[in-house]
Amino acid sequence: MAEAVRRQEILAEQEKVAERQAALIDRQFDTQVRDPADAQRHAAEQEAEAKRVARVEQAEAERLAGIAAAQAEAERARLTGEGEKQWRSALAEAEAVEGLERGEAERARRAAIADVVRLEGEADAAVIGAKGAAEAEAMRKKADAFARYGDAAVLQMFVEVLPQVVAKASEPLSAVQKMTVISADGAGRISRAVADNVAQGLELLGSTPGVDLAELLMGITQRTATAAEPGDAPAQMNGKVEITG
């Protein structure tokens, strides 16, 4: 009994160590990955926005200068008597220049927006990749700690969680106020449905930490049977089988 208590204390301490390690990894991730990535992304966005504003202002200044020059030339041609035709030609050229420069300004704006989107995507991808690596490392450490628990500790955990699995498996049926069973099996179908849910829950429970519960229980049973002397039988109390170790 004292040995079991000591093992439970060791198990609880190992779980606390694993939790502290996971919390430390999460804090390191915030300090080393997420915060620098956010700062880098913010700086990139600020730089891209500044470039975009500069391009737009430059394009606008060039557009206004071109329009002013074209209008001045058109006015000069009109005033000097070169003819209505030349004046219209200069005006059309000024409008063409305005349209061309407006198109260049729009292209510059779209290019700046594309740069911002690309930088945000790269920063987000880096954060996601680093977070995935940190989570994988935390899961690996938890799996290592779980592997060191030993068969007895794992069996104790299994015994503690089994009633919860059975309760969860029967919850859908307990919420039903009235049920009509149409089956040749009769009410036996209900108990089999609960058993199927329990089996699926145990399979999921075994796949989560990466431990084959069926294989583990079989191994513990075989070792217990081998250790027992021939002719010995488990003690029975009130119709229950009690295995002492």
UniProtKB/TrEMBL annotation:
Domain (Flotillin C-terminal): residue spans on this chain: 118-192
Region (Disordered): 28-50
Domain of life: Bacteria
GO annotation, cellular component aspect: plasma membrane
Single GO MF descriptor: protease binding
One GO BP: protein localization to plasma membrane
Pfam family, one: Flot
InterPro entries xref list: Flotillin_C, Flotillin_fam
Name of the protein: Flotillin C-terminal domain-containing protein
